[in-house]
Amino acid sequence: MTYCVAMALQDGLVFAADSRTNAGVDQIATYRKLHKFRVDDERLIVILSAGNLATTQSVVSLLQMRLNSDRKHLFGVSSMYDVATLVGSTSREVLKRDAGLNQGTVDFGSSFIVGGQIRGEQPRLFLVYPEGNFIECTPDTPYFQIGENKYGKPILDRVVQYDLPLKQGAKCALISLDSTIRSNLSVGLPLDVLIYERDSFGGGRHHDVTSDNDSFRSLGDAWSQGLREAFAKLPDMEW
Amino acid sequence: MTYCVAMALQDGLVFAADSRTNAGVDQIATYRKLHKFRVDDERLIVILSAGNLATTQSVVSLLQMRLNSDRKHLFGVSSMYDVATLVGSTSREVLKRDAGLNQGTVDFGSSFIVGGQIRGEQPRLFLVYPEGNFIECTPDTPYFQIGENKYGKPILDRVVQYDLPLKQGAKCALISLDSTIRSNLSVGLPLDVLIYERDSFGGGRHHDVTSDNDSFRSLGDAWSQGLREAFAKLPDMEW
C-alpha cells in the first residue's frame, strides 16, 4: 500500500508521500512515489502515484522517455489540464498492454495525484483515477489523497482550508502521514515532501524525511501528547 | 456500513455502536446494533453486530428465540467463551442456510463483538469473525472494532489503555464514533453506549445518544477545537 496527500492552497501546492511498497507483509521495499518534471522558470509538474507498482513505474517511465519525442509530452503541452489528460491516457495505455491476460485476480490499477504550475496558469491539482479520467481540486475541499487514506483523513478534514499557510499545510500532511504510519504497517518512511510556492516556477522545496529525522519524530510525539491533552480536557458527558 | 467499538478495561466493559444501515446512499435506515441479554444478578451479555443486516438480524433472532428451548442457549452456558462459540455457530448456521445460492456477488458475512460477565468469571470480550471463529481481548490491546474502523482508530491507539477509567473509555469511544461519522456518511446517529461495571451484574448504564443530544454535540465541538489547538501548538519542522 501507499499513502499520498496533496493540497492546493492559496499560496501554492503541498505534496507528501510515503515510500513503502509491499506485496504481502514479507515482501516490502522502498520506492519513491513522488516524481518531478521541471523546466526551469517555466513549469513544475509533480506526480504522486499509488496502486500497482508495475503500472505506476511504467507510466512514469513512458512519460519520462517521451519528453524528447515527437509525441505529445509533459513539456510540450500548454496546460495542467493537458498534463492530467496525458497521465490518464498513459495509464490506460499501460493497463491495456499489461492487464490483457489478467483474470481479475490481480489489481493492475493505479491512481495518481498530478499537480504543478505552467506559466500562464494558476497552480492546479488533479486526481487521476485508475480508469484514466480525473477531477480537479477546488478551494472547497483543497486536498486529495490516494492509497491508504482513511486513518489520516480526520485531521485533514479539521485543519486544511484554502487559506492555510503552506508551512502549516506541510505540517498537517506530515501529521496525516504519521497517523497512517502508526496504524498501518504498509505505509512507511522515508517520506517525500515538496512545497511549491505559487508563481515561483522553481523546483519547490523538496524534503526527504528519513527515519533518523529528529524533527519529524518530535512532531509525531508532540502530536500524540497534544491529542492526549486535548482528550483529557474534554467535558464530561451529561447522560 | 456500521461502526462499533468495545473495550475491556480494568474496571469493566464499554460498548458503543452507531445505528445506520445502508444499501447504497439512497437506502438508509436506522437499526440498533447493540443487543443485550440479561439475567439479573447473574449474567449480562452484550452483542454488537456489523455486516449483512439480514444475517445479523437472523443470528440475534435465533439466539433470542432459543433462550427458552432445549438447545444450548445464551442463558444456559456457563462461560463467556461458550457464549462466543454459540454466536459463531449461529452465524455459520445462518450463512449456510442463506448464502447457498449466492454466486459471490453479495457479501452475506457479519462480524460480532460479544462481551459481558457471567458469575464466576471476569468480564470478557470477544470478536467473532464472519467465519464464526473468534479471538478474545487482552490488556495489551484492550479494544475491538467492527465495521468502518479506520477513521476512528488513531484516537483509540493513542488513548485506550487497560487502566483507563470506564467514563474516559466511553468518552474515547464517542470521540472515535464522532470522527467516523464526520468522515463517512454510512455511519450515523443515534448511538448506543453501554457501560458495565465489573462485578455489578446489573444491566449496565445504557445511553441513547440522539441527534438532539447537546452533550454529544459539545463533546464533538470541543474535540475539534482541541485538535485545532493541538495542531497550532506543534513545533515547526527543521528541514
From TrEMBL, chains A, B:
Pfam families: Proteasome. InterPro entries: Ntn_hydrolases_N, Proteasome_sua/b, UCP009120_prtse. It comes from the Bacteria. GO terms for cellular component: proteasome core complex. One of its GO terms (biological process) is proteolysis involved in protein catabolic process. Gene3D superfamilies: Glutamine Phosphoribosylpyrophosphate, subunit 1, domain 1. This is Peptidase. It comes from Alcanivorax profundi.
